[in-house]
């Protein structure tokens, strides 16, 4: 346990020295919300959105952006780089198992995404008077399940990519579809009905809907929570089966 904690502390120090990761995971979602909130039409109630404002719908979206950045863009190249440079192989000969390093990175990137979510919620509330989630427990559950899906997807990319460069390419290929299903270009609630049904079968589409429902004060629909949970379990199982330390 003490060895694993030492690995976590060391990785945390290295993590703080990555300004790119800190910005894109920790700050960019709040900055994106600030930019969107400055658009006048986004601050006006829209009857087609049930009287809600576009900025209200984009708060859950930017939370998903933080998860996508952490799980898909930041973590895979780092872990694949460790394997490519033989760091994981060398760790296997010490009392500290390579799994400690993997767990540390999942913990750090997950914590960064959650911290980014808190920051985005604060910006939405203070700058644009977006109401805080009314169903806090349901919101937290949806947030954790969707984050689990994002990190599990990142682990899958680590498993199938042989080099850090390949991990970056695969991450970029997955990044844009993930951003679309999260509702970055158009909130899921404003998509055509058929497209909504398709998007809600994917983790970020279902997560967006669950977060929006909890923000409005309703308990998230169980099918949306189930979709995020199933994706997290399936992707996690696939990553575990395919992951190679060397």
TrEMBL record:
| The protein's name in its UniProt record | Transport permease protein
Membrane-crossing segments per the record = 21-42, 57-79, 100-124, 136-157, 169-188, 222-239
InterPro entries noted in UniProt? ABC-2_transporter, ABC2_TM, ABC2_TM_bact-type, ABC_2_transport
Subcellular location(s) per record: Cell membrane; Membrane
Task: Describe the location of the ABC transmembrane type-2 domain by residue ranges.
Answer: 20-246
- A cellular component annotation (GO) from this entry: ATP-binding cassette (ABC) transporter complex
Record lineage: Bacteria, Bacillati, Actinomycetota, Actinomycetes, Kitasatosporales
Q: Which UniProt keywords apply?
A: Antibiotic resistance, Cell membrane, Membrane, Transmembrane, Transmembrane helix, Transport
The domain of life is Bacteria
Q: Does the keyword Transmembrane apply?
A: yes
What protein family is recorded?
Belongs to the ABC-2 integral membrane protein family.
Q: Which GO terms describe its molecular function?
A: ABC-type transporter activity
Recorded topology in the membrane: Multi-pass membrane protein
Sorted alphabetically, the Gene Ontology BP terms of this entry are: response to antibiotic
